[in-house]
Amino acid sequence: MTEKPFIKTVERHFLERKGRNPHATTEFCWLLSGITLATKIIASQIQRAGLLEIVGETGKVNVQGEEVQKLDVIANDTLVRCLGYRGNIGLLVSEEDEEPHVIQDATAAGKYTVLFDPLDGSSNINANVNIGTIFSILQHDPNAGGDIMAHVLQPGSKQVAAGYVIYGSSTVLAYTAGYGVHMFTLDPSIGAFVLAQENVRMPTLGKTYSVNEANSRQFPSGVQKYLDWVKTEEAGYSSRYIGSLVADFHRTLMRGGVFLYPPTKKAPSGKLRLLYEANPLAFVAEQAGGMASDGQQRILDKKPKAMHERTPLIIGSRDEVDRVLYFMKG
Ligand code: AHG
Ligand code: MN
Ligand code: MN
User: Fold this and answer.
1) Are residue 192 and residue 57 in the same domain, yes or no?
2) Of 197, 216, 234, which one is at a domain's C-terminal end?
3) Is 245 in the pocket of ligand 1 (CB under 6 A)?
């Protein structure tokens, strides 16, 4: 009987890249373990949310102008605490905080910046719908010295690693470090994320489109033309929209299709944030053979101008994104 391979954790999987990925070091794995620890704690809070009276709003509004949920704060504090003492982190950037957390100055040992959306889809918490955490890791720009924003405002193509955790029927972590997309399932019996699938590939086609149709009259005309076409009988598509980006993206990654959050009157630059929503998921999408655009250019090529800047997002199967772009150029 062939021996069952010993479990492979995220850290061990990443370290196996030693020699091929310059970042595959034990110190980087110590950083990754800050993310896995934090998301295990967040998962345990979410699973018991109703019992711990942590569902609902805090009554505060964040830098995004959005109502802050109690679990947003818990997730954010957990990530800041778990990452705050990883010796190689200089800066933390969170959707929930206006300014970066300076853990140590960039020129010292702190050579990585971790950017995150601590809880994505938080409006869905009290409906018990899948939510997630999205993370992105940059290495400090050697020419930036003490200029904090220069380290933060790097294009997504500079990401060292990125991924997300989806808190659903099971808790799954997906990450890429530029060598494919790999998935780990949290095994509650041992409290570890265990390798479940390596080199995940996004289907090049998928007859599922995902958009908030309530905004469709505000979309650019090319997107409206696409939405007219996709509803025709011969196109044969179905519509799925969960309202949590991580859940809509994970379904698109696993089954193919396209997710769109185009510009609207209320959000002329789109609603989703470039640094810690679009960039990390674009890195994962491309590493799985998919595509991510803002309608004009590749998401990963965008040069950020502000930490919380928003971007339109069209992400998913290569041929499906291409088709949306074709209608937008029409
Ligand atoms: P967050 O909860 O981090 O603010 O993100 C919410 C985002 C994203 O998860 C989702 O795709 C989008 O908001 C849904 O927006 P609409 O409700 O406008 O469709
Ligand atoms: Mn979000
Ligand atoms: Mn969020």
Assistant:
1) yes
2) 197
3) yes
Which residues lie at CB < 5 A from ion ligand 3?
A: 95, 117, 119-120
CA–centroid distance, residue 249 to ligand 1 (Å): 12
Residues 152, 68, single domain; the answer is yes
pLDDT tens for the chain, 330 residues long, are 566 667 899 888 888 887 778 887 888 888 899 999 999 999 999 988 777 777 778 888 888 888 778 899 999 999 999 999 888 888 999 999 999 999 887 666 678 999 999 999 988 888 899 999 999 999 998 888 788 999 999 999 999 999 999 999 999 999 999 999 999 999 999 999 999 999 999 999 999 999 999 999 999 999 999 999 999 999 999 999 999 999 999 999 999 999 999 999 989 999 999 999 999 999 999 999 999 999 999 999 999 999 999 999 999 999 999 999 999 998
Q: How far apart are CA 309 and CA 288, in angstroms?
A: 25
Same domain, 213 and 322: yes
Q: Environment class of residue 59 by beta-carbon count within 10 Å: exposed (0-12), middle (13-18) or buried (19+)?
A: exposed
Task: Compute the distance between CA of residue 278 and CA of residue 134 in angstroms, rounded to an integer.
Answer: 10
Is 130 part of any domain? yes
pTM of the model: 0.95
* 122 and 213 part of one domain: no
CATH of the domain at 143: 3.30.540.10
Decide if 4 is inside a domain.
no
Instruction: Let me know if residue 78 belongs to a domain.
Output: yes
Query: Going by CA atoms, what residue is nearest to atom 11 of ligand 1?
Result: 245
Whether residue 169 is found in the same domain as residue 236: no
Measured distance CA(49)–CA(43) in Å, rounded? 10
Strand, coil or helix: what is 165? strand
> Can you give the residue range of the structural domain that contains 220?
208-329
Ligand 1 atom closest to the Cα of residue 241 is 19
**Sign of the Cα pseudo-torsion (15, 18, 20, 24, in order):** positive
